[in-house]
Amino acid sequence: MSFHDKVVVTCALTGVLTDPNKFNVPVTPEEMAQAAESAYNAGASIVHCHFRCQEQGMGALPTWDVDIVGNILTAIKKRVPDIIINMSTGVVGADISGPLACLKAHKPEMAACNAGSLNYLKCRKDGSWAWPPMLFDNPVEKVNRFLDVMLANNIMPEFECFDTGIVRSVTMFKQNGMVTGDPHLSFVMGVASGMPARPDLLPILKDELPDNSHFQVIAIGQGKHSNHWELLQRCVELGGNVRTGLEDTFYLPNGDRADNNGQLVDALVDIVRKLGKEPATAKEAREFFGL
């Protein structure tokens, strides 16, 4: 089979703030390694990793402690040596010393690079804010600082794009020389104040891609009746790559609650195969992205 017949499947293991006391998300190095192995055995070649505080009762909070991040990554690679690590980097504010230190210390093969700013909003049914309105600020200067470190350490950036204009901005990043090679973009769909989770938008977004780029869908929507699976199926149909995992959804296509990441990847691989394609191995994913 050629690359045309393969789909790179990513599993987002845990997320940013999901409370492990309420949801079955991995936190400890052992839990993260077990989750990565489950996802890999089901067909994922990449795991997207957020990192959590390890103190008792603090597992819902993120951490950029270089040693904690190192312990988690070491546990994953010891359990699944072949897996590709995609490290999260997203932080609010100008202080990005934590993620930069982790990138320099651990040099993952891939890392998220949020490619533009977004007013991160959500309303309750009564019209009140679900949380205080916040700006997820990613000005060009901040993006460039991340890219400088990634390129210096041979880390492939994954441009996370929350809106159409952010997709178009990546073309200008390439024109400006901020990034070299073939860009990899993720369409983040389903955030209330970003791009809606609508499969009919995907052909438009694909048309706005930079030349010679790769793309995938990140379908945010943890509700039972979200468009998570419809979006991923449409993305495969359009020649894209796909991501699932407990960061993105808790529910299987039939509406049942997923117990672990492996179940979600199993369901996604079933969709990939029903469309006549196969999940790429980690070796094939490395060749596809030029890692």
List the helices and strands and how they pair.
Elements: E1 6-7, E2 9-12, H1 29-42, E3 46-49, H2 66-79, E4 84-87, H3 97-106, E5 110-114, E6 118-120, E7 134-136, H4 140-152, E8 156-161, H5 164-175, E9 184-189, H6 202-207, E10 214-219, H7 228-237, E11 241-244, H8 261-274, E12 278-279, H9 282-289
Parallel strand pairs: 1-12, 2-3, 2-11, 3-4, 4-5, 5-8, 8-9, 9-10, 10-11
Antiparallel strand pairs: 6-7
Helix pairs in contact: 1-2, 1-8, 2-3
Describe this structure in words.
By secondary structure, the protein is of the alpha/beta class. The chain has one domain: Aldolase class I (TIM Barrel, Alpha-Beta Barrel), CATH 3.20.20.70. Helix content is 35%, strand content 17%. It is built from nine helices and twelve strands. The strands form three sheets. The protein has an eight-stranded parallel beta barrel, surrounded by six helices. Helix 1 packs parallel to helix 2 and helix 2 packs parallel to helix 3. The chain is globular, with a radius of gyration of 18 Å. The mean pLDDT is 94.
Secondary structure tally, helices: 9
Q: Tell me roughly what share of residues is in helical segments.
A: 25-40%
CATH architecture: Alpha-Beta Barrel
Q: Helix and strand string, N-terminal first?
A: EEHEHEHEEEHEHEHEHEHEH
Question: Which range does the strand content fall in?
Answer: 15-25%
Would you tell me which CATH topology applies? TIM Barrel
Can I get a quick summary?
With about 290 residues, the chain is of the alpha/beta class. Helices cover about 35% and strands about 15% of the residues.
